[in-house]
TrEMBL record:
SUPFAM superfamilies: alpha/beta-Hydrolases. This is Carboxylesterase 2. Keywords: Signal. It comes from the Eukaryota. It comes from Salvia divinorum (Maria pastora). Coiled coil: none annotated. Pfam families: Abhydrolase_3. The active site is at 189. Residues 1-25 form the signal peptide.
Amino acid sequence: MSDNKSCPFFFFIIIFHLLAAQSFAANSTNISYEIEPFVRVYKNGTVERLTGTDTVPPSLNPKSKVLSKDIIIEPSLNISARLYLPSSATARSHKLPLLVYIHGGAFFTASPFTSGYHNYLISVVAKANVVAVSVNYGLAPEHPLPAAYEDSWLVLKWVFSHSKEGGGGSEAWLRNNVDFDRVYVSGDSAGGNIAHNVVARAGLEEISGVRIHGLFLNCPHFWGKERIGNEASDPKMVAVEESIWIHAYPNSTGFDDPLLNPDYDPNLSKLGCKKVVVYVAENDILRDRGLQYEKALEKSKWKGEVKSVEVKGAVHVFNLNFPKSKDSREMLKHFALFLNDKKSLTRV
Ligand SMILES: *[C@@H]1O[C@H](CO)[C@@H](O)[C@H](O)[C@H]1NC(C)=O
Ligand SMILES: *[C@@H]1O[C@H](CO)[C@@H](O)[C@H](O)[C@H]1NC(C)=O
Ligand SMILES: *[C@@H]1O[C@H](CO)[C@@H](O)[C@H](O)[C@H]1NC(C)=O
Ligand SMILES: *[C@@H]1O[C@H](CO)[C@@H](O)[C@H](O)[C@H]1NC(C)=O
Ligand SMILES: *[C@@H]1O[C@H](CO)[C@@H](O)[C@H](O)[C@H]1NC(C)=O
Ligand SMILES: CC(=O)N[C@H]1CO[C@H](CO)[C@@H](O)[C@@H]1O
């Protein structure tokens, strides 16, 4: 479903992760800091986003007939979302699963409107036959963390305001087409981090009507103070990961903040869903954290099912970069089965 053209945004990320750019902190005296390939922030406050700005409007996708539209959810905070409806939803009125998707971009860049994410959501909605809400949360540095967590939580509550218990919600695509017992949350990279944290919050705050069935993480951005696995072998990428967190969340408690390192979350056992899949890529500095996340969940007394899938020879968010590759097609198939609650954990 996705188009053939390589998406500059993801492409840059790959180049970056492969070559580990020479310097992440720029030298020009006018630059406050730079995190390649995401953002450059000047001392005078100007923010330049280096990637993720190639946006496309919502549309009726001619091939899949997936329909999309943009809506404002909270005008005072400028929180919006792009909604997706599969072709089956317009023909019949049976209820479908709902995917709440949270995009990546190091907390600093990209949006649901970035072409790569738009194309990806279309491919998922068509393949899995689900309704989707792709969250447009506030980005650092203008909106430092925890803004993205708060914004995404607000969107989740808005979603569930359309359920029977939630009442109120007036978005017809959700009211008419969604089965609120089959809501899934997913995200990649920084979005995977946010996705985990909103589902964790859903387990702690019993908001009426909020029941999340599953969580699907793709190369999630977790980290920690101590080096684990192969992390130490790439000091440049370690520095980048640290720079991202320091600048995205100046007020965090550090690299072992439970928002970044679930090993230190005393409430992990209350994660608010029943099943989790975490995809990791072999050649990704974040691989070991993804695998560690599975271990942490298993060690906690969480009463759900967690499964990791490591894709050999793959790079960070490989499926977004190379949507047509065999690995990407298999992952999409797996994701679609997961969203339909079918036994999908055969491929390991
Ligand atoms: C740095 O800022 C000064 C003052 O605003 C300006 O004159 C100069 O052109 C800037 N240099 C660069 C490389 O942008
Ligand atoms: C801030 O600095 C950058 C780089 O020197 C310059 O391009 C930009 O115009 C400046 N913006 C303001 C508002 O001064
Ligand atoms: C609101 O969000 C839109 C979409 O992300 C963005 O283009 C716009 O600049 C934002 N407006 C304000 C006032 O921040
Ligand atoms: C950090 O916390 C302090 C105290 O609560 C607050 O005044 C400040 O705005 C925060 N900084 C950021 C970047 O969020
Ligand atoms: C754990 O959950 C309790 C409420 O159940 C909350 O007060 C506390 O802040 C949570 N701890 C963390 C680290 O999130
Ligand atoms: C020429 C120069 O000063 N390069 C430096 C730019 O910044 C990076 C990161 O701090 C340094 O590693 C370079 O040596």
